[in-house]
Protein 1
Amino acid sequence: MSDAAAAPSADSKTVAAEPPADPAAQLQALKAKTAKWKTVVKAQLEEAAQKNERLREELATANKRADAAGAQVRLQLTAEFKERTSGKEDEIKRL
């Protein structure tokens, strides 16, 4: 194993930004980072809320269509039942 592999490279130190040494500067940097994070999270939550609202509307529309289709089927079945029942009654009377 070579010394270059054992020791961290100089490039890895420059990739990570070092926090400011001053505590007040660290606090300001943290506040700025937190504010950016809050903005991003707020945008994500608003987007999710809008998507949820659209999905609720789509679900309500789909439920109305399903209810209407079910009512139509019930009406059709009722009409067919009455037709068959009256046909059977007529046949019984003939016999």
Protein 2
Amino acid sequence: MQRQIDTLARSLGEFIDQPDYPTLVLNGTDAALVLPTRILAGRDRQDDDHYYLLFPEPCVDAAQYLAAIVRSLKKQIEVFGAELGARKLPPWPALPLEAEDARQAPDRRLELIVRYMGRQLPGSSPIVWGLLPGELVDIAGYAALVRPLLLPGTVPPWMDRHRFLVRDREPEPAIVPALLAAQNERVLVLDVELDNAHVMSSLADAAQDRSLSPDERMLAFYQLAAVDFSYQRYPDALEKYGAMFNYYSDSGNKPMQALCLTGAGDVHLAQAEPDRALERYQQSLAISVDDANLPAMHAGSYGAGVSCLALERDAEAEGYLTHANALAGKLNNPYAKCDAMEKLGVARFRQGKTREAVDIWLKGKALAKQFAYDERTKSIIEHLVVACRNSGLVQQERELARERASIESHEHQSAREPEVVDA
């Protein structure tokens, strides 16, 4: 195992030191991606030749992850400003307003942030970006966020000074297969395969390491809760989310409070306890509304809507999911919007609002196809097939079946594409 760790550390170092490839995709489970983050944190403390900007915050929602990046950078900018002030030097300018504007496309905002840091950090030393969320749930939204870093074309000049480490998610990767299908040789890929027992031990060590800041230790604790959840150790996950909520309440960190409550709600839903899940999502909403935290408001609204569907409180579900749909639009997250539109259609269909349900499903299907969100496209088609069957619309049902078969055929063809070995 130590040999694997040494090999991983050497591979990361070689990527950081080379000038030809700006982006490396690390492919692995949430648990396996813990170790690269710790290796980068160790380099940050010892390496004076590079700047390190590391963002291990969870990505339950891509917009929320981007908001966490902005918050972290603003804190770091404040620290830089204090140091410059002590030296009688002018402070840095603020982050561009467009970079903080949730109405702007997330990938555009990330590009503006990268450009800003490239201009402001002194000298010409490379800047290493660890965009490695410890928990990756919103894979579609995350892939859209980091799309400019995946180099669909030639490397733009604004990337010259930077090294980007991003991630994919096993067992259902989305980024790496797309790179292979496109024969994209401008991006490096590294599979991270580590023994789960060692990773868990590493996480536990990080959570207890008093040389780390309390926030860093608590993020490791958060990852332990996510691992507990993935292995269906639900009581352990709930205990950790509760302890973290108390910590973040004491420190006044409302975004993380809301995230812990949402995590607890997810655990209750997985345990088929929608009534308790709804309570947690409502508590999360109360905090996020007061904090004007749009990503957390979306997560709470969507979770509450799904809980109400499980409780067969369909009118309430429609209200929550209408808000979730609108918030996803404000956040420019088409994937979350497609999810909300599908569930909103279910809530309407159950109430006998067939026309309204079909209308939102058709819009959701069109949006999902536009963004190649095949999983959601197929599930919405299933709902439309049932609606057509109940209404005796045989021809429309056949057309939908052909549409679904076409999507599945395209997926199988992509899966058979020959793999490209990265240079």
Protein 3
Amino acid sequence: MKTSKVNDVVQIATKLDGNIEFETVLFSQVLVGELGESVNDLLFVKKMFGLYFYTSRSAMDQKMRLANLTVPIPVFVVGESKNVFQIK
């Protein structure tokens, strides 16, 4: 059964509610690799609350090179559908 993006947002919001502060959940892309693996610019961080957490590999590299600069690191979450959402 295919899940829609709306169902994914509901699932993500439900799983994060009370665990992580966030204001928005925005669709970003579709994961082309396997869940839990780093793919292209998506760097796998860990699985928590039944969701897969990723960040941007390029943003993380930039943060490491420019230690004095505050660079916001984007956080992406993926459920079983492989739709990738950025949380803010």
Protein 4
Amino acid sequence: MPTTTRDKSGFTLASHQSQALCLGTLGISGLLWPIAVWGFNSPLRFLAGWAAAGGGVWLLMKARERWRLHGLEEGVFVEEPSGLGQVIDPAEIETARTNISQGVWENAQYQRLRKMVEEPEPDGARRNRTGWGVITSAHVDGDQLVSYVIRTVDGYLATKGRKTVKLKELEELLTSVGSGSRWEIDADSGEDRIVGKLIMDMFPKAIAPEPPSSGAIDEVDAIRRHAKARWLLGVDGAGREVSYGLTEGFPHVLVVGGTGGGKSVWARTMIETFRVQGFTCFVASGKQTDFAALNGVPGISMVADGREETAVMVRTVRKEMDRRYAEEAKLMLAGNPPVFDYAPLLVVLDEYGSTAMEMHSAYKDPEAFMKDMDFILRKGRECKVHVALLSQTLRKTGDANIPGSWQANLTLTVSLGEPESQTLLSDAFTPETRDAARSIGATVKGKAGRGLIAERMTGRVVEFQSYYGWSPGYTSLDPAAAEKYRAPSPEVREVWERWVPVSDSVTALKPRLGIKAEGPEWAEGDLVDTIANTPVIALTDASGNDIPKNAKYDPRSAEWIGTRADSDFAGIGFDAS
């Protein structure tokens, strides 16, 4: 005998079947009240009995309605008194037709939609006399259907499964519209209504963020600006800025994007927007060329290349956080409230997937690096440390996956370009955002800088055009510069011209850091015992000038003490000697 579990979720959240049984029981009880008070010589009891009976009738009507919805949920064909099945009233269909103009009626897309919605479809072992709804309103622009409203059969959208299937069918029916457009379809189960609206592609091909009036002048200014700092991502189809406050529940961001999606351009733009606000930036990438020009730029403390330098950089940020929390603990022990008045830090970790796989393949115990990252993501918000984690793709399992414990703090997922299937299946996208991300992702494919944002907390998915901002060493106002360095439009160039003086005015609030390696063999050491715990050392003084004696600790210097022996590979050529 199958085991059943009694529904304890409360009336509102209970199944339609449970609600019907509950309301029916109460309704019958109400009908019995006049019998219960029969024979009592009391007008008050008489009135109460018949009032209860009236309430019983009302409850039974509600119970019948809930049982009908239960029938729909179970796939049961609901019979009406006529025995013809549940249908749209023909009179309602005729009334709706009067609202459809001749131009709309002759539109091919409208006719495809009408055939799907209004013509009979199989329903169990029988067929309805009409379809599952009627189009009550529709509009076209030229040959393009741009909006419609469908009135469905009562309760037709009550089941989540049927609702999901129908919305997907409607979306796929009209996907062959103009390039860059997509349908936004909303269903209201309570009103038995579906509204479809074509969203036209109104995005700019390129746009730059507006510069601040000035750069941060000191740590006090940087701390003040941090309170209003935002991830400036780009603009939506209506030209509205898409941004998220670091102190408004979005301390860190996860960014995915394949080759050509604009991930590196986005990262450099983001670094610059935070650098001028007084953030000290720590940047790591599997491809040094993506950020090499930032080495030596004021406000950039480290540009790490490769797994060893990345491990040192991440451990350095972790140690700085430990220091900040230790200072706050001393304040609390002295009877003072914690203040966390520290200049903000930005950690940009590009090519996370390949970096994680390298860590696992090169070291016996890669967990030291993973634990450092976990600590930064969990505890960084309070002490003003923020992370942008970037990867070409994400996996649900394996060395390159994003651990579940990290996801709670990566409340914002950004995809530049169409997210890959395995990325959509990863924990970066929640069940609430996955379908919308897949749909929008198909429309942004092949469009430079176009992407989508999935909000983990709200389940909202937003399409946007990412900013193409000024970045020292990677952008140029010189008309003779290579095309990839020049502004993509006159409008972007005009904004860049206003960025340059602000960018050039930035002074470093922290020194550029080197790695105090002991020799070329340093890179061959163990991650835990040697590499991650290698000290860092200042390469610049308070005025931003290089400290010559420390040049040997600069991985980008010709004097770098950690330089390995040169390869004897002479390159690909015809000389076989």
